[in-house]
Amino acid sequence: MSLSALWSATWILAVGTSLAGGAGAFTLHVDGAPQVAKDQVYDRGGCDGANRSPALSWSSPPAGTRSLAITMFDPDAPGHGWWHWIVADLPASLRGLPANAGAAAGGSLPTGAFQGRNDFGEFGYGGPCPPLGDPPHHYVITVWALRSARLPVEHSALDRTIEAALRHDAIASARAVLTYGRSRASR
Q1: Domain coverage including residue 43
Q2: pTM of structure
């Protein structure tokens, strides 16, 4: 089955997966889902949103979780997809982030958390801004339950390096998929 066929559903809510096998109760909720809200859209490059990360909440990370991380990835972007947000070293006890926690200054993030560089070349959240006229893109937001209290990467590491570290250190993950597109008629 192709990647696009796997994401043909408009909305996948709270898919919890255990990397050790079996489904768990680890779930993710994204305010405003299933569509990307206007204020979450990027604010440059022809897009006119407010570039505010969505409010997130999650429940039941598995036993052994020592920290959490969040990513937002667009698998529909040309090439190898597009990283919109990476935040790591969140405390295991945390159960959510308020809207705009992904601001470049990171003021709403817990002490010790860091934001990686997104594919816009910025640290922090970079909202959706798919090419004008493309079919709606899918934005996969993932909360990762990690074995380590601190992700063993430099904060300035490339997104692919951070992703590899997340996959290596993950106990489980929970995902939500949002959609957003820019039609030529709406311009």
Answers
A1: 27-78+94-135+148-171
A2: 0.86
